Amino acid sequence: MKKVLIYSPIKSNKLDYVFKFIFEQQLGLDWKYLTEIQEVEVLSESSLLINYSATAIKQAIWIKNSNYFSHFQMDTIPSFQEELIFSSDSASSFDLFAAVFYLLARVEEYGENNWDEHGRFPSSQSILSQKDLLSIPVVDKWVGELRKEVEKKSGQSLIPKIYKFISTLDIDHIYAYKGKSTLVTLGALAKDVVRLKARRLIDRLKAQDPYDRLENILQWHEQVDLIPQFFVLTASRGPYDKNLSPQSNHFHTQILQLSTKAPLGIHPSYQSSKDWCFDEEKGTLENIIKQPVHQSRQHFLRLRFPATYRSLIAAEIKEDYSMGYPDVLGHRAGTCSPFFWYDLEKDEETELMIFPFQLMDVTMKNYLKYDPETALKAAKRIVDSVKEVNGTCCLIWHNSSFYEEEGWAGWEAVYREILSLASA
Fold first, then answer.
1. Mean confidence (pLDDT) of the chain
2. Domains of the chain: which residue ranges?
3. Could you tell me which CATH number the domain at 164-176+211-423 has?
């Protein structure tokens, strides 16, 4: 394929970021900026030309410039629709580059918002939610239409993307009962007695803790030829961080053993996004498993821009898996493709790779109130939407989400079926 020439009268870090994502990472093409019309006239004969200006150029693919980048403002929302359409003269129906930047850079999540009770950006405030597009990987669909236009203009086929599936699990509670302190155990016992929770009282006496499903989980993944990615909470106990103490022998032994079978990342605590005790928590996990940790996912998905991601970068985290909403399924950033985080305030691309997720167990059961059958149908629709664009499907589950006493009857079958259909 010829090198792609991109004519744009303006040049900026934001445009560089979008061009790298679309042309390098998604289409696998080399590209070059042209800012002078004279260069276009000299070089366009031997190359494919993308015209990003206000005026049409013969034989070029024309992405109509809306002046979004030349007059960038945080509160400006670029116009876009679900479908990117190219007319007979290869003109785009909206400013593709502006729309992609707005969604990937998460511009709408900066500034003052009506945060939810956990300090998170609500899905209802998202432009994709308001346009009823959260369930669709619109960015990948748009790039797919551009791919077709490039192939038509060049007469050559591009190397296709390959669908991928990433299965991840959060270990918020390694055990339901085992290894808890005497004080915590006595308090929980008293509550079970008062609430007449006979099944819980019986489960406390069993040899196998109901949350101790890691071996089963590993076996299920082995059956579909997958290695899962785990995220481990190593925080001190608090209102929303109730795992075993990482100093516990039970915790230490289980996590060290798990690290020999699957990659482990850090699950920064609920409190870490406020007090930022992240370095200590990451160091605790690294000391247990005797290897560096470079993957992370925020507990409760507590993301605040730019503070959270800057702290991850400072702690040498290379990949984050928090990009999704807790209350709805779908595509928070409009894409099911990994992308580098853009620090909007510093106006620069970073080396932190974001892996968006689309599916989570507690979203389906606790937020959307799905029964197992409904959840499986919804999961299949999401997986199919990712396969359609050859994206990366990312699933979140919890080792605690199989305990029938806590309402998870029938969900093991859902999980195993998702693993099967998503890995196919």
1. 91
2. 4-154, 164-176+211-423
3. 3.20.20.370
